[in-house]
Design goal:
Blueprint: H1 3-16, E1 29-45, E2 52-70, E3 73-86, E4 89-103, E5 110-126, E6 129-147, E7 150-161, E8 166-179
Antiparallel strand pairs: 1-2, 1-8, 2-3, 3-4, 4-5, 5-6, 6-7, 7-8
Length: 180
């Protein structure tokens, strides 16, 4: 079976069943959500007067759990990252921290803005072993909820690693499902 036939059918069934898994369709209260998509990351290192820069694309994922005090505001703990191959290794760049989402329309579907700050983690794993670097990271984005619970979100993220003069930034686009 070809992915070109399966993907549209899977997306259509997800769109049509979006309202079946919810209790009252009110965003207010406990929330949990996840998303999957794609993106690009640019890594910059300026150790010892040498500037190294590379860009890779890969799979993007995110997860959030929290509370919405109203139908237009969410407060959550988030974990989001990019998974990409680079020079024979499998790298992961992620941000774990706290975030907010503000919906323009409190009821129903529409545009929302999101952001968060937290700990950034860059993990490089290869046949030689792995290295783990941490730092400070943030993300800012916007999204659109075409039907309740299902959204498309675009984020810019940046990480400043504590190990030295290293920075990573990029963008990602994800398709998300939010239980509320």
């Amino acid at each position: 079976m070809k992915i070109g036939r399966v993907a549209p059918a899977l997306l259509a069934s997800l769109l049509l069943s979006a309202g079946l898994l919810t209790a009252d369709d009110q965003r207010k209260g406990f929330i949990v959500g996840a998303g999957l998509g794609a993106g690009s990351v640019t890594y910059l290192s300026d150790w010892a007067w040498e500037l190294w820069r590379w860009r890779e694309s890969g799979v993007a994922a995110n997860f959030k759990i929290g509370y919405a005090p109203s139908n237009s505001l969410e407060i959550f703990v988030m974990s989001g990252g990019m998974f990409f191959p680079r020079e024979g290794s499998k790298d992961t760049l992620g941000i774990v921290g706290g975030g907010l989402a503000k919906y323009v329309k409190p009821e129903g579907t529409g545009l929302f803005f999101t952001g968060g700050i937290g700990l950034s983690v860059l993990n490089r794993s290869s046949w030689e072993g792995y290295s783990l670097e941490t730092g400070f990271g943030f993300l800012a984005g916007l999204g659109y909820e075409p039907v309740k619970h299902l959204s498309v979100q675009a984020d810019f993220f940046s990480a400043i690693l504590f190990a030295g003069h290293e920075r990573a930034s990029g963008w990602r686009v994800t398709l998300n499902y939010l239980f509320y």
